[in-house]
Design goal:
The protein has 376 residues and is mainly alpha-helical. The chain has one domain. The protein has 13 helices and four strands. It has a two-stranded antiparallel sheet. The protein has a two-stranded antiparallel ribbon with strand order 2-3. A hairpin with a 2-residue loop joins β2 and β3. The protein is globular, with a radius of gyration of 22 Å.
Length: 376
């Protein structure tokens, strides 16, 4: 007589509160800084005052907040699902290119050649817009494509990769290869994406000039709100049943399958969501920086996203945001003061985190607090 077998219950991490009291206080402070303090310091405080926030700093902080969204997206798939992507720069660039196409159409006849076509198309003797530029004059269509283009690319790639159960270092290498293939494609003039120069010389968005102090601050505030919104949404997601299954997949995928869960839809969903977040970050990045070219989808750019998450601390959500600010703030300073040493610093930082801070800056702070508590 055979004994009936019983499947073991799935033990998921316990759900916690969305934010602690300290966390809500921090979120409120961040909201006030983005929506009130920064605009006041930039628009109302005189330029000769020590408290004035310069236009350069507004642009720099806005750019870093876009990077922080990418780092947050990386944390969702790497920190909470155990999937290391070395190709997220592709999704960032795709969102940037979609926004760049719209901004190029907004130039109108104000270009160097006084043509309705973008200048690079006139230079290459193009007579009409290619088919994939058909919706580029509509802002609503642009907003939809910012989500759909990186989302569809990620979904198709992820479906075949996850269905084939490709994981670990092999998945990382394939994502890097995908990004490099896209890089080579966008370098070609025949694609109608500006070749190696990409898109630049933007002038307007929604008919309003880009190069004004008010517009720069508006984009800064929107970026800050999007970052804060994504952070709160990510906190809710990882604390939900869906997020707890993702963490179970990260820790023991085989056991999750044995307990009756199919990891494919979970991994595919979070992979696509992460790609869309990077696409939105790229779309916010382009009007603030004023250029988008294939360099944004280089393998080095994708690796940097992983570095930000590792430096700040994986599986913490706030850690990758902090890591993005630390690394890019240091990069901004070092590339001006010591440009020849920047890459050495980045390499040394990553090695130091790997050897002595495997949980990143946030993990180190928690460890120090626990040590002080034990002594007390």
């Amino acid at each position: 007589m055979t004994t009936p077998t019983m499947s073991l219950p799935v033990i998921l991490p316990q759900a916690g509160p969305l934010l602690t009291r300290t966390g809500w206080s921090g979120a409120l402070v961040a909201l006030l800084v983005v929506c009130a303090v920064a605009p006041a310091l930039n628009l109302l405080v005189p330029a000769d005052s020590v408290f004035h926030l310069s236009d350069y700093m507004v642009g720099l902080l806005g750019k870093i907040m876009c990077y922080a969204i990418c780092a947050l997206a990386m944390d969702l798939i790497w920190g909470y699902t155990g999937i290391l992507s070395l190709g997220h720069g592709l999704f960032f660039a795709l969102g940037g290119y979609v926004m760049g196409m719209y901004l190029m159409r907004q130039i109108g006849t104000d270009g160097n050649y006084k043509s309705d076509l973008p200048d690079f198309m006139v230079f290459l003797d193009w007579k009409e817009l290619p088919w994939h530029w058909a919706l580029s004059d509509s802002f609503i269509a642009t907003l939809l494509l910012i989500v759909l283009v990186p989302g569809i690319v990620a979904f198709v790639f992820g479906y075949f990769a996850f269905r084939s159960r490709i994981k670990g270092v092999y998945f990382s290498i394939i994502t890097q290869a995908l990004t490099f293939a896209a890089l080579l494609l966008f370098f070609r003039n025949e694609t109608g994406m500006g070749g190696n120069n990409g898109f630049t010389d933007f002038k307007r968005i929604l008919g309003m000039p880009l190069a004004t102090q008010e517009m720069r601050m508006t984009l800064f505030v929107i970026t800050g709100l999007v970052l804060l919104g994504f952070f709160l949404w990510a906190r809710w997601l990882v604390n939900s049943k869906f997020g707890r299954v993702l963490q179970a997949v990260r820790d023991a995928e085989s056991r999750v399958m044995f307990c009756g869960y199919n990891p494919l839809p979970y991994k595919l969903t979070i992979w696509t969501i992460s790609a869309v977040m990077c696409g939105i970050a790229g779309a916010l990045y382009v009007p603030q920086v004023g250029i988008i070219n294939p360099g944004e989808m280089s393998t080095a750019a994708s690796i940097e996203i992983a570095v930000w998450a590792a430096v700040g601390g994986r599986a913490t959500l706030v850690g990758p945001i902090i890591g993005a600010f630390i690394v890019n703030g240091a990069k901004s300073w070092l590339t001006v003061s010591f440009p020849e040493y920047w890459l050495y610093f980045l390499g040394a930082l990553f090695i130091a985190v790997t050897l002595w801070m495997p949980q990143g800056v946030v993990g180190l702070v928690k460890k120090l607090r626990m040590g002080k508590g034990a002594k007390a």
